[in-house]
Amino acid sequence: MGRASKREEIAQAALEQFHARGFSATGISDITTAAGVPKGSFYNHFSSKDESALEALRRYGTGLRFEMLAAPDRAPLERLREHFRFLGGDTVENGFVRGCLVGNFGAEVADHNEEIRAAVKEGFDRWAAEIRRLLEEAREAGDLSRDLDPQATALFVLSAWEGALITARAGKSAAPIDAFFVTVFDVLLR
User: Fold this and answer.
1) Cα-flanking dihedrals φ and ψ of residue 51, to 5°?
2) Of 88, 86, 65, which is closest to residue 180 (Cα–Cα)?
3) What are the structural domains, with CATH classification, of the chain?
4) Half-sphere exposure of 169 (CA within 13 A, CB side)
């Protein structure tokens, strides 16, 4: 009988290490130590640190809880606000040491690795499309001005969110996240 695969433990540890420490500060030994496996086990499942980073991005994307955005029992802007509240709560609860893994990799790795850059872009594109869909839904319901461009606004909201997370982490303060909610939901999308 063969040994059980440790891929799941390694992939989860990679996600946690990259999210908490960043790409450059995370070594393969950090991942395998966190997974509780020998270093050689890493290479049984991933050809490189880059490949494990791509898997971490995929896993992180599933944790963004996009299903919150599709709940038909709530107004579109309420769903959008709740989505960002969930994400902001994660940042605050973790002591401002974890931001958005997609944004973190975009800032740290995208200029140096085309595959990771493409995965980051794909993640942001998917997220902006989800936001745009909700803005279109809110506009159709009469909750937003017809003059509002859903595509440009979705990109702005996503960019503002990523900036708020970076600023919150740098200042170890929720003030940028609070400012995001006030400006986006109480002014822009009111």
Assistant:
1) -65, -40
2) 88
3) 7-58 (1.10.10.60), 65-188 (1.10.357.10)
4) 20
Whole-number CA gyration radius for the chain: 18
Tell me the residue type at 18: F
**Alpha carbon distance 15, 101 (integer Å):** 9
Place of tokens 């999210």: 19
- Output 66 or 9, whichever has higher pLDDT: 9
Q: Predicted confidence band at 82 (pLDDT cuts at 50, 70, 90)?
A: very high
Rounded-to-integer distance, Cα 103 and Cα 125, Å: 12
CB 166 within 8 A of CB 150: no
Residue labelled with tokens 């606004």: 153
pLDDT surpasses 80 at 1: no
Assess contact for 16 and 98: CB atoms under 8 A.
no
Helix 101-108 vs helix 150-171: crossing angle, to nearest 10: 80
DSSP states of 119-133:
HHHHHHHHHHHHHHH
Contact 31, 17 (CB under 8 A): yes
Give 35-57 pLDDT, tens digit per residue. Answer: 999 998 999 999 999 999 999 99
Contacts (Cβ under 8 Å, ≥6 apart) of 139: 145, 146, 148, 150
